[in-house]
């Protein structure tokens, strides 16, 4: 009975000791498990090993404490890093946005500047359009070169030759002309100039009506413009044709009256009395050659006297313009004059006449080769 009681007491004391020891390990165990639940499985394994060893080396509570402190430190560092990362990210985004704002500001500044320029340009275009279509578009220098000469004579000691703007009376158009102010007392409006053959005079009707070429060089002023000049009220015009031959001989043909009918009459030419040294090629030697009162013809508008055709030499001609190098002129059948053909030693091809003609100007009975020609008109003083 005494032995049994002793054994029971021993077992009880062992159980109590074991319980105390077990409680000491379990007091913080739930917290440790919960707190370490996010640590990786590999991280827990050494702890288990430590736990397994603690019975003989480091106690569980100290290991847990160390681990907790380490975890708190890591968490703190992580939090700091996250905060720093957040701060730098926010700063970066702020910088990027500021950069974008600055770029946008620069771009919108450039856009505004461009818009302003476009505005300025379009207002300028509108203004010049308005000027172009205004009733009095350009300040003209006079009605024609004779008028300009008369107007400037008292004010300017020497009036220079060159391009002037004229506005013939009773017309609504102003246009540029070349005025010869030196030749034979000046006042000449140039209506045609052929010198180097560089300009193309193979032109259709519309070009001969409107004019073409360069006023300072080779050009045809245009039938409409010449018509406006010579049809002014109370004026009479003379026509002067100045010729230079290939061997540098100068000659001229002059008509004391020159006018044109309007376009409905195909700008029919009317010539007064002839004077000069080159002969009256406009009228020729017989009525068939006479070009006075002939309407104007061009390659595409045939008003010549060959209707339906002429026999000239060995060839049959239907269009004098085509026969004469596709130029425009007052052709009859076809005639001895065509100042719009090519200057110099232009070749005759397939019987066609390609060079400047004034066939009454001859040397030893042979028509001279003409190097250059100018047709100019000037007012004749009238009593009125
Ligand atoms: Ca014909």
UniProtKB/TrEMBL annotation:
InterPro entries linked to this entry: FIB_ANG-like, Fibrinogen-like_C, Fibrinogen_a/b/g_C_1, Fibrinogen_a/b/g_C_dom
SUPFAM superfamilies reported for this sequence: Fibrinogen C-terminal domain-like (SSF56496)
Region annotation Disordered: where it falls in the sequence: 24-51
Location of this chain's protein in the cell: Secreted
GO cellular component, one term: extracellular region
Top-rank taxon, per record: Eukaryota
Pfam family, one: Fibrinogen_C
Signal sequence bounds: 1-19
Basic and acidic residues biased stretches: 41-51
Domain annotation Fibrinogen C-terminal: ranges: 136-381
Keywords: Coiled coil, Disulfide bond, Glycoprotein, Secreted, Signal
Protein name (database record): Angiopoietin-like 5
